[in-house]
Fold this sequence. Notes:
The mean pLDDT is 96. Helix content is 33%, strand content 31%. The strands form three sheets. Strands 1, 4, 5, 6, 7, 8, 9, 10 and 11 form a nine-stranded mixed sheet that branches. By secondary structure, the protein is of the alpha/beta class. Helix 1 runs antiparallel to helix 2 and helix 2 crosses helix 3. The protein has one domain: Rossmann fold, CATH 3.40.50.2020. The protein is globular and about 60 Å long. Bound molecules: 1-O-pyrophosphono-5-O-phosphono-alpha-D-ribofuranose, uracil (URA) and magnesium ion.
Amino acid sequence: MPKVTVLKHPLIEHKMSIIRDKNTSTKSFRENVSEVGALITYELTKDLELQAKEIETPVTKTTVYELKKPVVIVPILRAGLGMVDGIHDMIPSAKVGHIGLYRNEETLEPITYYAKFPQEIKNGCVIVIDPMLATGGSASAAITKLKEAGATDVRYVGLVGCPEGVERLQNDHPDVPIYLAALDERLNEKGYIVPGLGDCGDRLFGTK
Ligand SMILES: O=P(O)(O)OC[C@H]1O[C@H](OP(=O)(O)OP(=O)(O)O)[C@H](O)[C@@H]1O
Ligand SMILES: O=c1cc[nH]c(=O)[nH]1
Ligand SMILES: [Mg+2]
C-alpha cells in the first residue's frame, strides 16, 4: 500500500481554517489554497534524489547538490490549478502538464476532455495535483493516463481527502504516495466531502 501522509503543521491548520469557512472571499480562498500547496511541497519532495556538482562560490571551489531528475507538475483541471503557483514557486524548474477532467454529476464518473504532458514525465518525478480526493475517480483516471503516456514516478497531492477516495487510489495505484492537508470523515450522498470545503473549482474561480 502506498503511504498516506496527512500533514500536521500549525500553518497548514490555520490556512485550512480559512479555506473551509464558507464566508471566505474568492481572493483569500485562492491565496490560501496556493500557500498550502507551497507548504505541502516541502514534505512532498523530501526524498527527491540529488546529484553533486562542482561550482565556485565567491570564496572558493565547492561541491553543491542539485535535483537529479526533472519535476513535472500536473494539475487536474479546474481545481488543481489553484495549487500550481504555490508548488511552482518552490520548484521553478518544474514543467507543467495539464489534464482536464470533470465528474458526471449523476454517476460521479470522471470524463476526460484534455491532456497535454511534457516529455519529462517519462524520466521525471510527476506531481499530480487535485485539491479534492472524493470518490478518487478523477485522481485515479488522471494517473492512469499519465502512466499510459510513460510516467513511472508519480505522487499525488491534495488538500482534503476522505477514506473512500484514499482507498480507491490505493487500490488502483498502489505505487503512488498520497499527500493531503486533511483527511475528512466521509462522502455525502452527492459525492461531496464532509465537512470538506464545498466545490473547490467554483470557490477558486467564483463560478457559483
Ligand atoms: O474524487 P472525485 O469523486 O473524482 O472528485 C474530485 C473531483 O471533483 C472536482 O472536480 P469537478 O468534477 O467538480 O470539476 P472542476 O474541477 O472542473 O470543477 C474536483 O476538482 C476533483 O477533480
Ligand atoms: O467535496 C468535494 C468533492 C468533489 N469536488 C469538490 O470540489 N468538492
Ligand atoms: Mg475536477
